[in-house]
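Lab notebook: predicted structure, single chain.

Context: the supervisor wants predicted structures on file for every construct in the current expression panel, including those that have not yet been purified. This is the next one on the list. No modifications to the sequence; it matches the entry in the shared construct table.
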Amino acid sequence: MRPHQSSIAESETTLSLASTLTEAQSRIILAIGPEGGWTPGELKKFTQSGWKPATLGPTVLRAETAAIAAVAIALSHLQ
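Prediction complete. Output recorded below exactly as produced.
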């Protein structure tokens, strides 16, 4: 079974991480963007590789805070 892959990007404004996880079954891989955001080239590579962009909400978080929030959302979905 292929893991669900989501990239957290500040440029994504409508698709929440929680909504992308509805397809996830047992394995989730998250990519948390660097401060300053993903480059257009990085975003293109994610899309070409089947990753889904997701947002954590309207507030832009620091990278370490975004990682904690994303993992908490993913864990709550898997339980």
